[in-house]
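Subject: design request, 290 residues
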């Protein structure tokens, strides 16, 4: 059990995926970005998740992005590898590939589209658990994935030795408190959704998984030290990103930091000119954030 192992606590960066002009994944830039995050003080990265556009990556791309993250971390930071796929056999292969690449743990969201019972979801995670020697974290994001991990199911998964942590992306205070009360003394509980970072810290989460930390790692490290002014600045940027392009907005901001991650993949939209203008205006207004 990883329990509350210090090396997997704190700010976790859910890394973006860079593309070259022809649409291929730019693994070299992915590696460089992780190295930059580590130099900034980040100790855990999580490639191939929602922020990393995992739904539109091939099996080979997912595995290669994990290898790039491990190389960029260079033993100085931990890597929690995303292993989601529609096919349970691919989930197993990705779990084994993550271990072979040198990742430290894996994380897996629920199946998508069709609704499933708690028993079915238990089997989904047991399938992954059987295939990899790495600690497995479950990932709850029902607003995107259709299925929600109930607190009682998380308790079953922890008690059964299936999962050794949970990332909860609902951004709901009552949900995080319930998870901490149910399993927080036995396993890792991460908050997520960037406007919820400081509150997650105050509630006692063991870590926080962030998208905007791709761009502003030091600001999130300050938030984890309970800096309310850093959270207020992040809230302004997050609101603009959500209103103008989502992941495309994140990539625009990251390009401003010297990492041209390119466009998103279809069916995501490109960032509009109005979105670029608004994001740039907010950055100019905020001044030096990181």
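Subject: RE: design request

Done. Sequence follows.
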């Amino acid at each position: 059990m990883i329990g509350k192992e210090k090396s997997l606590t704190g700010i976790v960066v859910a890394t973006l995926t860079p593309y070259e002009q022809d649409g291929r994944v730019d693994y070299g830039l992915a590696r460089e970005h992780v190295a930059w995050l580590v130099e900034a003080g980040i100790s855990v990265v999580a490639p191939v998740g929602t922020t990393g556009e995992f739904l539109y990556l091939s099996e080979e791309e997912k595995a290669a992005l994990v290898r790039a993250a491990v190389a960029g971390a260079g033993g100085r930071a931990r890597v929690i590898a995303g292993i989601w796929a529609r096919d349970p056999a691919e989930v197993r292969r990705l779990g084994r590939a993550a271990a072979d690449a040198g990742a430290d743990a894996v994380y897996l969201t629920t199946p998508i589209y069709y609704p499933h019972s708690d028993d079915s979801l238990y089997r989904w995670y047991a399938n992954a658990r059987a295939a990899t020697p790495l600690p497995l974290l479950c990932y709850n994001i029902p607003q995107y994935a259709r299925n929600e991990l109930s607190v009682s199911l998380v308790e079953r998964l922890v008690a059964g030795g299936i999962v050794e942590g949970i990332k909860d992306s609902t951004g709901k205070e009552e949900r995080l408190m319930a998870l901490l009360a149910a399993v927080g003394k036995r396993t890792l509980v991460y908050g997520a959704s960037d406007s919820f970072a400081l509150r997650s810290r105050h509630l006692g989460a063991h870590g926080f998984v962030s998208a905007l930390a791709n761009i502003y790692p030091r600001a999130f490290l300050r938030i984890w030290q309970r800096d309310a002014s850093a959270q207020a600045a992040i809230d302004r940027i997050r609101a603009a990103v959500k209103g103008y392009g989502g992941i495309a907005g994140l990539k625009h901001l990251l390009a401003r930091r010297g990492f041209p991650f390119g466009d998103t993949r279809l069916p995501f939209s490109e960032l509009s000119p109005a979105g670029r203008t608004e994001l740039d205006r907010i950055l100019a207004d905020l001044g030096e954030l990181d």
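DSSP finds twelve helices and eight strands in the chain.
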